[in-house]
């Protein structure tokens, strides 16, 4: 059985992933920024005698990550790192502050780097390990108003692809999991009506997410996919998850860059018609 470190376990995909690995008998180190604000995972672990330890770790903080992971490594190897912690950031490039761009990169990109750098030397030395970075279909296609979020996921994808090339020589598997629209608190926030803006895409995406959530895809589906990627031993780099993930990527792949830009700039009726395959 493996020792599995997971970030962002307070709710959603991280929470479900911790439970999925624990039910399979793995030792789970479930981290979150403020465990006192999200006691549910610790409570269910105690009630069900799951091998889950809830730990405080803020991926935005150098000292928090290094202190937490150094202490864990002192007690034994970390076999699997799952970088799940993430935040959304939506809005036009004009209207979002530079601080907001930095904040989303800090968590979604630099947060993953902090955790990777803290564990990767021990994996390299043991010539064993697995690093799974939770990206999104937004890591492979960019459109307003999700540009700030997409930029962070594109960066994570580039990081992961390069890291995979470095670590395969040391028998360390590295992979990306790319969900579509999943019923999480993040998706629910996106599905709320967008603030007034001269850029019309915010309202469009709020409507699109709200519609998708009418037939919700649970985060447990992503957790199961993450587990399958680990458990299968695959060296495949990218793994799409969810019923809309493959169609979204296929749509983007069917269009030139200029066609994609024009579609995103255009009216809602044309956008939704193309989305539905018409």
TrEMBL record:
SMART domains: PKS_KR. Residues 2-173 form the Ketoreductase domain. Transmembrane segments: none annotated. CDD domains: 17beta-HSD-like_SDR_c. Keywords: Oxidoreductase. One of its GO terms (molecular function) is oxidoreductase activity. It comes from the Bacteria. The keyword Acetylation does not apply. InterPro entries: KR_dom (IPR057326), NAD(P)-bd_dom_sf (IPR036291), Sc_DH/Rdtase_CS (IPR020904), SDR_fam (IPR002347), SDR_oxidoreductase (IPR051911). Belongs to the short-chain dehydrogenases/reductases (SDR) family. This is NAD(P)-dependent dehydrogenase (Short-subunit alcohol dehydrogenase family). It comes from Granulicella aggregans.
């Amino acid at each position: 059985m493996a020792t599995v470190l997971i970030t962002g376990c307070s709710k959603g995909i991280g929470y479900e992933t911790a439970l999925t690995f624990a039910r399979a008998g793995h030792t789970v180190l479930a981290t979150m920024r403020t465990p006192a604000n999200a006691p549910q995972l610790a409570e269910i672990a105690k009630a069900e005698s799951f091998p889950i330890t809830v730990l405080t770790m803020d991926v935005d903080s150098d000292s928090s990550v290094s202190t937490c992971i150094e202490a864990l490594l002192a007690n034994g190897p970390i076999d699997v790192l799952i970088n799940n912690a993430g935040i959304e950031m939506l809005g036009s490039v004009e209207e979002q502050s530079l601080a907001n761009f930095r904040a989303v990169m800090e968590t979604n990109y630099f947060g993953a780097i902090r955790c990777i750098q803290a564990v990767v030397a021990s994996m390299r030395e043991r010539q064993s390990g697995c690093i799974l970075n939770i990206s999104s279909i937004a890591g492979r296609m960019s459109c307003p108003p999700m540009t700030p979020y997409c930029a962070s996921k594109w960066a994570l994808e580039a990081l992961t692809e390069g890291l995979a090339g470095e670590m395969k020589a040391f028998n360390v598997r590295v992979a990306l999991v790319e969900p579509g629209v999943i019923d999480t608190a993040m998706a629910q926030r996106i599905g709320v009506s967008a603030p007034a803006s001269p850029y019309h895409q915010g309202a469009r995406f709020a409507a699109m997410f709200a519609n998708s959530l009418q037939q919700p895809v649970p985060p447990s589906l992503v957790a199961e996919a993450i587990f399958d990627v680990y458990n299968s031993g695959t060296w495949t780099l990218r793994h799409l998850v969810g019923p809309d993930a493959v169609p979204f990527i296929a749509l983007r792949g069917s269009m030139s860059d200029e066609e994609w830009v024009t579609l995103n700039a255009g009216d809602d009726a044309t956008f939704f018609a193309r989305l539905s395959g018409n």
